[in-house]
Design brief:
The complex is a heterodimer of chains A (330) and B (259). Chain A is an alpha/beta fold. Chain A is built from ten helices and seven strands. Among the domains of chain A are: 1-32; 39-136. Chain B has nine helices and no strands. Chains A and B meet through α1 of A and α2, α6 and α8 of B. Chain A: Keywords: Membrane, Transmembrane, Transmembrane helix.
Chain lengths: 330, 259
């Protein structure tokens, strides 16, 4: 009987030890999931929960303060995440805190991070409060962007390949630059010429510098123009006058132009003289007649000098001229 | 022609055995809830199966945790993920390796023991004598043993898991300067109810299978003393196969409820 009791005792110890270990395991796991003890239930609504699951950790400033209790789809754009927070830690949180869903490490599971709110101090978090959520860039979004970048890179590479092929086959300016020997020679000459031009330009600039250094800016006209404000004013006035003169000249030119066009198109004497050829012929014959008449008149006058009645008069004029000539001689 | 006949005969025998086993299980549930309850025999069997297996399970579990950690450590170090050791070891041991390995060891120890004990009782006609004396041998021998294995195996697995984690923690403490507190903190931070409960529930089925097959093989052993050895041997082989089938079904069902 004593042996039997000892066996039962050991069996009891064995069973109890097994149950204690099992109970402790339940307690530790349950305690982490805040199944035992007082907790605070808060909610946050997200557009995308990025694979968050019930039982994932909730962190506040890096501390594990609770777990995700429930994930409910409110509508097609809102998913409510109900969290149980440890009451002692939750009492330190404010209503303006914000929740965000992140990955726990590079390949870890998702966690809800609660970030303390900024701005004026808010009241403490209460049972059933809803925390504002912040949407983070999800891995899927990043991959989508990366995919677009890859597509663009592929397009760029394809274009680059086309360009390279064109260049290799000597198409276009770039291709010609690389493949056309004649162009290369021309380019070489051009560069050589450019080099020479540059040298000449440098020489010219040096000369000009020398010239400038020889200019006496204090006493020369250039110095006067550069330094004397009075001269500058005069020069400006001259330029102004020149400008107004140019305007006047322009006006005169316009008048002349109008006048000449009027002559061309009008019916005045000048236009008649310029355009009527019969008049010109008449005028020409009249001038010939006048010339002939003048010649005849010269002959008449010469005959008149030898006339008896007027000979004395002409002789008297000649004597008077001779006397004036003697008087003028020194 | 003979080979084909032999195959058909074996296949037929297999299905017959499955049918008999199912009937045996049905009779167990029938006898389980009918009076009188052989409580003392149940406690005696629990002691023999539970307490007397503790050393085996403890040593096996400790070495399992130790070796598993030592073997995994270089690979995790290569990836710079030694800090994940407690998480990885705890999930592996609690979910799968602990229950299966310990159940297989107990199938060897308890299953073969039951098969040999009941087989020898059968061939020496002790079971028939019990019937003659007015004792229900099935209730006294079979129900108590199956019930004992069903309830003791889970406790042994829990203890074995714990000792395996202790062995793993010892290696981490010696090689990685990880304190026992930090190790078990990380273990319980990683473990979920979804790891613990399905693994524990399946150990009840493991225990039931070990007891059922051991009792069935022993209770139905034939052909004298040679049949005792055969019953013992086939009890271990059949139980081992059954354990893997149960494990597969358990994992499959767990995956449905805890994807």
């Amino acid at each position: 009987m004593k042996i039997q009791s000892s066996k039962y005792l050991r069996l009891g110890l064995f069973v109890i030890s097994g149950l204690i270990i099992f109970t402790l395991a339940i307690f530790f796991i349950g305690n982490r999931q805040h199944l035992f003890g007082e907790s605070l239930k808060v909610t946050s609504v997200f557009k995308n929960v990025n694979g968050l699951q019930v039982g994932n950790n909730v962190r506040f400033a890096g501390l594990d303060v609770g777990t995700v209790k429930e994930i409910v789809m409110v509508n097609d754009t809102s998913i409510a995440v109900n969290m149980f927070l440890d009451i002692e830690t939750a009492n330190q949180m404010k209503k303006n805190a914000m929740a965000t869903i992140n990955s726990d490490g590079l390949v870890g599971s998702m966690v809800v991070n609660i970030i303390p709110g900024e701005g004026p101090r808010s009241s403490a978090l209460q049972q059933g409060d809803t925390l504002e959520s912040i949407s983070q860039v999800a891995t899927a979004d990043m991959l989508s962007t990366l995919n677009r970048t890859n597509e663009n890179a592929a397009m760029l590479t394809s274009d680059l390949l086309k360009i390279t092929n064109s260049i290799n086959s000597g198409e276009g300016v770039a291709g010609a630059l690389l493949k056309d020997n004649e162009m290369a020679e021309d380019l070489k000459h051009s560069i050589s010429n450019l080099r020479q031009s540059t040298r000449s330009a440098i020489t010219s600039v040096n000369r000009f510098n020398n010239l400038l250094s020889q200019v006496n800016f204090d006493e020369s006209l250039a110095g006067l123009m550069l330094n004397d404000s009075l001269s500058a004013q005069k020069f400006a006035a001259t330029l102004s006058n020149l400008d107004s003169s140019a305007v006047e000249i322009n006006k005169i030119t316009n008048d002349i132009s109008a006048f000449s066009s009027e002559i061309k198109t009008g019916k005045g004497v000048i236009n008649f003289m310029l355009t009527d050829t019969s008049f010109v012929n008449h005028l020409d014959s009249s001038l010939q007649n006048i010339e002939e008449a003048t010649h005849k008149f010269d002959q008449n006058m010469e005959a008149l000098k030898h006339n008896f009645f007027f000979r004395g008069y002409f002789r008297r004029l000649e004597r008077q001229k001779a006397r004036e000539a003697e008087a003028n001689e020194p | 022609m003979d080979g084909n006949y032999s195959f058909r005969k074996n296949l037929s025998a297999f299905f017959i055995e499955i049918g008999e086993l199912t009937g045996f299980a049905g009779r167990f549930f029938q006898e389980l809830f009918s009076r009188p309850f052989e409580f003392r025999e149940f406690l005696r069997q629990s002691y023999n199966m539970g307490n007397k297996s503790m050393l085996l399970v403890g040593v096996t579990g400790f070495i399992l945790g130790l070796v598993f950690t030592l073997q995994s450590r270089p690979t995790l170090m290569e990836f710079g993920a030694v800090s994940w050791m407690p998480s990885m070891i705890s999930i592996s041991i609690v979910r799968e390796i602990g229950p299966v390995v310990i159940a297989l060891i107990l199938a060897g120890r308890i299953g073969s023991g039951i098969g040999a004990e009941l087989g020898s009782m059968k061939v020496t006609e002790q079971i028939d004598a019990m019937e003659v004396s007015g004792t229900n041998p099935f209730k006294f021998l079979v129900v108590t043993r199956i019930l004992a294995t069903t309830l003791m195996i889970p406790i042994l697995v829990i203890l074995g898991d714990f000792i395996a984690l202790l062995g793993s923690a010892l290696v981490e403490n010696l090689k990685g300067n990880v304190s026992f507190t930090l190790y078990f903190n990380q273990v319980f931070n990683t473990l979920e109810f979804s790891d613990l409960f399905p693994a524990t529930i399946k150990t009840f089925f493991f225990g039931f299978a070990i007891g059922l097959v051991g009792c069935f093989k022993g209770y139905n052993s034939k052909k004298g003393t040679a049949g005792v050895g055969k019953a013992s041997n086939s009890a271990v082989v059949f139980t081992s196969m059954l354990l893997f089938i149960i494990d597969f079904i358990a994992v499959f069902i767990t995956d449905i409820f805890y994807p």
